[in-house]
Amino acid sequence: MVIFDTEEYIDSLISVLQEGREVPLLVVGHSMEPFLVHERDTVLLSPVSRMLRKGDIALFKRNNGQYILHRIYKIKDNVVYFVGDNQNLCDVEGPIKIEQICAMVYSAKRHGMEIHETDFIWRFFQREWLWTIRWRPYMKKLLALAYRNK
């Protein structure tokens, strides 16, 4: 088995993106659940080819060198704020400079099925789910109670 350093691996993917090509990336981590599930789903990273907007999923590089794949929560004064689909309002990260954004996600494979920006499930998480950010802590508590009482 070959083990790669994550930053080195993504740095190599970034060089492919800079050539204008798309690259697949296995989702690792739980911050984008329930839309993207850890080690089950993959995304197709593409160079940024249009204006960024609220609800887009993008790969950015933190100041400490770590790469993060999250959804855009808001864009203000030419900086971007990100949050994962499994995170709360207190977890919004930013400001992130536009130059720190390495790629965008235009399609993904969920449960082995390819979905795109125009599909219902994509739009639901891009709009309605993002809107629930203020209520997620309460929603999670209700769900935990419901499952505990079964």
Structure description:
With 150 residues, the protein is an alpha+beta fold. The protein is 25% helix and 32% strand. It has helices at residues 6-18, 120-131, 136-148, and strands spanning 23-26, 42-46, 57-61, 67-76, 79-83, 93-97, 101-110, 113-116. Strands 1, 2, 3, 4, 5, 6, 7 and 8 form an eight-stranded antiparallel beta sheet that branches. A hairpin with a 2-residue loop joins strand 4 and strand 5. The relative contact order is 0.16. The model has no long low-confidence stretch (mean pLDDT 91). It holds the Pfam family Peptidase_S24. Residues 7-93 form the Peptidase S24/S26A/S26B/S26C domain.
* Spans where pLDDT lies below 50 across 5 or more residues: none
Helical content band: 25-40%
Mean pLDDT comes to 91
Please tally the β strands and state the result.
Answer: 8
Helix-and-strand structural type: alpha+beta
Share in β-strands: 25-35%
Number of helical segments with 4 or more residues: 3
**Morphology call:** globular
Domain Peptidase S24/S26A/S26B/S26C: 7-93
InterPro entries: LexA/Signal_pep-like_sf, Peptidase_S24_S26A/B/C
Organism: Candidatus Fusicatenibacter merdavium
Protein name: S24/S26 family peptidase
